[in-house]
């Protein structure tokens, strides 16, 4: 199998609640690159992804406007529409957008007794997998997606995010 180029990940911090210089951008890029390598999806090779780091209010608006759920959530993914063939073959293909809410992510990490960076990595991986077509609408889809998430996170040294707190440590 030919080597894939990692996706180009552009990160936009759109909410002041994300602490400055906390290494979140590196955490997200590392997680997405690991996910792209493990999934080996040719469409993601060299593609571009936009990640918006927002707050609960921002993600609630997106969730309401795009999914019809008027509540905050941890992560949302918006796969890009099919793009016509570009005149410039060197231009990266837009894979889609991921939005991650700080407060919900922080609260879930604390409730689940996980390091914030581990939960953030999981959400970045989860969001990326949605961009390349994975879903969890059925039990079989959820099992496949969660299995891949476990594999990717283990490669990053992150424990199984689906293990109960009784099973961990």
Secondary-structure-based class equals alpha/beta
The second-level CATH architecture is: 3-Layer(aba) Sandwich
Instruction: Give the N-to-C terminal Cα separation.
Output: 38 Å
CATH class: Alpha Beta
Q: How many domains in all?
A: 1
Strand content: 15-25%
Return the average pLDDT rounded to an integer: 90
Helicity range of the residues?
40-55%
Number of strands: 4
Strand order of the largest sheet: 1-2-4-3
Folded structure, characterized:
By secondary structure, the protein is α/β, with parallel strands linked by helices. The chain has one domain (8-155): Metalloproteases ("zincins"), catalytic domain (Collagenase (Catalytic Domain)), CATH 3.40.390. It is 42% helix and 15% strand. It contains five helices and four strands, in the order E-H-E-H-E-E-H-H-H. The protein has helices at residues 24-39, 56-67, 102-111, 116-131, 139-155; strands spanning 8-13, 48-54, 75-79, 94-101. The protein has a four-stranded mixed sheet, sandwiched between helices. Strand 1, helix 1 (24-39) and strand 2 form a beta-alpha-beta unit. The longest helix is centred in the last third of the chain and has 17 residues, at 139-155. The chain is globular and about 45 Å long. It starts with 7 loop residues before the first strand and ends in a 14-residue tail after the last helix.
């Amino acid at each position: 199998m030919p080597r894939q180029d990692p996706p180009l990940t552009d990160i936009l911090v759109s909410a002041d609640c994300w602490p400055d210089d906390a290494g979140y951008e590196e955490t997200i890029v590392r997680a997405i690159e690991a996910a792209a390598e493990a999934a080996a999806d040719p469409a993601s090779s060299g593609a571009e992804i936009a990640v918006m780091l927002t707050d609960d209010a921002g993600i609630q608006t997106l969730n309401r406007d795009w999914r019809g759920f008027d509540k905050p959530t941890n992560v949302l993914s918006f796969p890009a529409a099919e793009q016509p063939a570009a005149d410039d073959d060197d231009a990266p293909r837009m894979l889609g957008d991921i939005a991650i809410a700080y407060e919900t992510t922080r609260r879930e990490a604390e409730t689940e007794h996980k390091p914030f960076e581990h939960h953030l990595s999981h959400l970045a991986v989860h969001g990326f997998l949605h961009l390349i077509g994975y879903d969890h609408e059925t039990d079989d889809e959820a099992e496949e997606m969660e299995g891949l998430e476990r594999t990717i996170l283990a490669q990053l040294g992150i424990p199984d995010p689906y293990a109960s707190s009784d099973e961990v440590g």
